[in-house]
């Protein structure tokens, strides 16, 4: 497995690191983004942990490619704010349109380069979707016509079997949101795209754990099998 560190929006004040991890065998390409909104720190923690564990050799995979942008909006993250403007409203709404922010434009260029078949956009939100439909916390969101809905339902079923609290269970939301990263991935690249939303009402450690588990469930079904690598005991002697 090879990991390359690159720079998104390199020639702008919004530059931020992204990583391309490649298995030894060709396979699906999955893009994972986090930190489009700077105050959604659970998603950032999960994406950052994933790339760190891959770099340290604690995780590996043999087939496919991961493109990971762990903190898209560095300036918003530094202030722990959603971001002005809201970056998730600046992506192209149709083919032939341009992105309205240097970061969203840079993400589109990276996606055009690697052509992901799946995009997982990690976020956080208010409330609990199982309490009221007006809340998005604890939900997976995809577009009405996206083929990703079937797999999202399977993963929600797996997650909810291990969640005893009814209000903490996950739900599927089908939302049409032009200008979002998810909408652009489907419209421009015909990718299957899912927005992951954990609830701010939960402790950070639990939100990170849910985000990590969801990503790994998706990757496993898509065909990128992550393997835990344990240090040999005799290596410490």
UniProtKB/TrEMBL annotation:
Residues 27-126 form the Succinylglutamate desuccinylase/Aspartoacylase catalytic domain. The keyword Zinc applies. The keyword Hydrolase applies. InterPro entries: AstE_AspA_cat, N-alpha-Ac-DABA_deacetylase. Its cofactor is Zn(2+). GO terms for molecular function: hydrolase activity, acting on ester bonds; metal ion binding. Gene3D superfamilies: Zn peptidases. Keywords: Hydrolase, Metal-binding, Zinc. This is Succinylglutamate desuccinylase/Aspartoacylase catalytic domain-containing protein. The lineage of its organism: Bacteria, Bacillati, Bacillota, Bacilli, Bacillales.
């Amino acid at each position: 497995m090879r990991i390359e560190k690159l720079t998104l929006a390199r020639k702008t004040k919004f530059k931020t690191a992204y990583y391309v991890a490649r298995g030894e065998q060709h396979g699906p390409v999955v893009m994972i983004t986090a930190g489009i909104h700077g105050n959604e720190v659970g998603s950032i923690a999960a994406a950052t942990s994933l790339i760190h564990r891959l770099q340290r050799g604690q995780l590996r995979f043999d087939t496919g490619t991961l493109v990971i942008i762990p903190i898209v909006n560095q300036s918003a993250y530094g202030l722990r704010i959603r971001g002005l403007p809201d970056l998730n409203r600046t992506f192209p709404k149709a083919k032939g349109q341009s992105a309205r922010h240097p970061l969203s434009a840079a993400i589109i260029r990276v996606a055009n380069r690697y052509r992901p078949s799946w995009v997982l956009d990690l976020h956080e939100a208010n409330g609990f979707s199982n309490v009221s439909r007006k809340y998005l916390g604890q939900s997976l969101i995809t577009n009405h016509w996206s083929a990703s809905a079937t797999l999202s339902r399977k993963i929600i079923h797996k997650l909810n079997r291990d969640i005893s609290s009814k209000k903490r269970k996950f739900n599927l939301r089908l939302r049409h949101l032009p200008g979002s990263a998810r909408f652009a991935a489907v419209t421009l690249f015909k990718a299957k795209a899912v927005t992951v939303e954990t609830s701010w009402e939960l402790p950070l450690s639990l939100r990170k754990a849910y985000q990590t588990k969801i990503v790994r469930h998706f990757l496993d079904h898509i065909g990128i099998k992550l393997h835990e690598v344990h240090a040999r005991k005799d290596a410490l002697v």
